[in-house]
Amino acid sequence: MKIQxxxxxxxxxxAAGEVIERPxxxxxxxxxxxxxxxxxxxxxxxxxxxxxxxxxxxxxCGMHPEDLELSVKRHATSKISSxxxxxxxxxxxxxxxxxxxxxxxxxxxxxxxxxETETAYEIRTHGNSDVKKPEAVTFGHFLGSPxxxxxxxxxLFAQIPARLKFLKSPKAExxxxxxxxxxxxxxxxxxxxxxxxxxxxILNLRPQEENNRAKAILADEGDYPLISMDNFxxxxxxxxxxxxxxxxxxxxxxxxxxxxxxxxxxxxxxLLMQAALAPFRQLLMPGQFxxxxxxxxxxxxxxxVNVHPTKTEIRFYDTGKIFREIRSLLxxxxxxxxxxAFVPLSVSAQQWTAQDSFQNFSHPITSFITxxxxxxxxxxxxxxxxxxxxxxxxxxxxxxxxHGDELILLDQHAAHERVRYETLRKQxxxxxxxxxxxxxxxxxxxxxxxxxxxxLESRLKxxxxxxxxxxxxxxxxxxxxxxxxAWGTDSLRVRLKNLIDKLMSYELQENHVQNDSVLxxxxxxxxxxxEACHSAVxxxxxxxxxxxxxxxxxxxxxxHPWNCPHGRPTVVKIPRGKFEEWFQRKI
Length: 587
Ligand code: ADP
Ligand code: MG
Fold this sequence. Notes:
Layout: H1 8-19, H2 23-36, E1 41-47, E2 53-58, H3 65-71, H4 98-105, E3 107-113, E4 120-125, E5 135-137, E6 148-154, H5 161-164, H6 170-187, E7 192-197, E8 200-205, H7 210-218, E9 226-230, E10 241-252, E11 258-262, E12 265-267, H8 270-277, E13 289-297, E14 303-304, E15 315-316, H9 319-337, H10 354-357, E16 389-394, E17 398-402, E18 406-411, H11 412-430, E19 437-447, H12 456-465, E20 469-474, E21 477-484, H13 492-505, H14 510-514, H15 522-532, H16 545-555, E22 571-575, H17 576-582
Parallel strand pairs: 1-7, 11-13
Antiparallel strand pairs: 1-2, 2-6, 3-4, 3-6, 4-5, 7-8, 9-10, 10-13, 11-12, 14-15, 16-17, 17-18, 18-22, 19-21, 20-21
């Protein structure tokens, strides 16, 4: 074996690969530089989704000619000068490698002018090795300002076919750019942004308040209410300041609309993503995500932003704390405001107090949940039926209430599923009791594959804890003699088969299987509960008024009343104005 030191141009291209993956990486780095330079206007212009040209113009502080020359050198930065500075970084850049990396993989030219100088200077690079002296050029204004910087990047990866072929279509690359620009724009609402591709305007955002910017970016064209919440309006000062803007009515099939901003830095962090998604798990259909922006402000010494070359991930020194804080803010927000379902609010739900929510319908016990674990907070949800008048039932499915300025509809099936689900959950997970059983007149047998047999017996124990009576019957079948009473007996065979399939596909950890006093696993529980939902009142069963009221009372005793466990809404409101539109009483 012979060790070689790589020639600089090879080493540079390798290092550049860590920072520059696609046009959006360049846009992110250039726009972050513009923001660090104090720009209040940033324009991004693309040709062919950025593959042919990326141009970024800003009205920031600009660079002196000697800095222009230095800026493209690796580890050239004006932002930190000692290792100690790393602990208190306020700027977005600090590694001093973005411009050097871009130079290694594309043709880069920059024109810049500072406030102090009369002249603008231009530099053109072809690789990092021989950077020519900047030349004075005549250049008018940078977005209406005499100072600023214009950077053009052309022919990305033109010299590196291996990287070029990993780029997607211009349309897909444009989408990436747009997504990054949206995140950066949300993190910096005081700055104006525009994005053009092939002369078509994709984004045009004027400086604005944070919540307006959030709405502009999250809502696309939709007319959904934006809910904003923070954890610092309360009395005790939190160590991590959080605020969230949430497009309450909307869910999205992508995580693209889940924006994370930590200390002003737009990031894509797995931990934050998980923390933000956890409270929504039961509220959304599988594959649907909330539309949400989370801002985290934390002491810079409690995080490390230098764990990833593109600085898109962050290390939190106390991950448990950040997880808990986010979870509790979002849980509170959901409890107050409901889950994603189109619910135009005519009265701000915040005006309802917890007190109000329990005054409606005289139901006996309002708080029968005794959380076994203190962190498991129980929130009171505002009961939207408070003060509303029963107005009948339609299609044997929806219960109608007249609330003066709104018609409120309840999907009785979805509501029942939610109630069933939470009742089971309380019994099994919180109280650790086995739910009441229902003996089957005719036991149901379920066929088992040969290869599933090992491990079957120990897994069946879990089902006993959930209220099933089950035993191995033959080499290829098991027999159910009892099911939880809440299950009912509708299409039982299919549901039992589903349950066994899930049970077998689920990877139990060895020590769980051996240890009898194991905690019920949530995942298995959810399978059980979602199968249980099949037996809830079917749409089509007619309910009496008193039954409807009892159902609503029980629904709003639930921790998550706004959705069934599969994410369908339980309650929808139609404002009176909609009716007036339909009947053309209003123009
Ligand atoms: P970093 O941002 O980590 O310092 P970069 O390679 O991105 O490294 O930029 C190098 C330096 O070039 C910056 O530290 C800054 O001084 C200067 N610079 C880059 N872009 C701009 C800009 N748009 N306006 C003013 N100065 C800039
Ligand atoms: Mg930078």
